[in-house]
Amino acid sequence: MLQFLAKNMKYPTRAQLTKTEGLVMMQVTIDEAGKLKEVKAAYSDSPLLETEPMRVLKQMTTWEPAKSKGVPVASTYLFPFMFDMTGEGGSDKESLKAKCINFTQSIPASAPGQPLFVSEEVTVTGYGVVK
């Protein structure tokens, strides 16, 4: 999964041009059949950063659903994406990680009764664009 995300993610050009960095937390619901039912930006430091993770997550194939007592159940997955313009001033990674942890703790209230899984963070690095 992480290899798929890393291979297909691209730093949005407009975000590179404006040197926009930050955290985007994508929330995905996987239904009982393993299909992505809902993909949304649950938290974002900038709207410029949201569309790329959404595009790539929607390309993913069917998942194996979570199970409760052997029965498939809907579940919620969180994907933290860190957008970093390395060499362009850097970002405060500790602050971004703290945001991610704080946000993760608030999610169960928005998806009651569903198992919650948090992916390892995906860092998307922008090196600038060629005009």
UniProtKB/TrEMBL annotation:
Top-level lineage group: Bacteria
InterPro entries cross-referenced by the UniProt entry: TonB-dependent_transducer (IPR051045), TonB_C (IPR037682)
Residue span(s) of domain TonB C-terminal: 1-92
Pfam families listed in its UniProt record: TonB_C
Protein name in the entry: Energy transducer TonB
Organism field: Pontibacter toksunensis
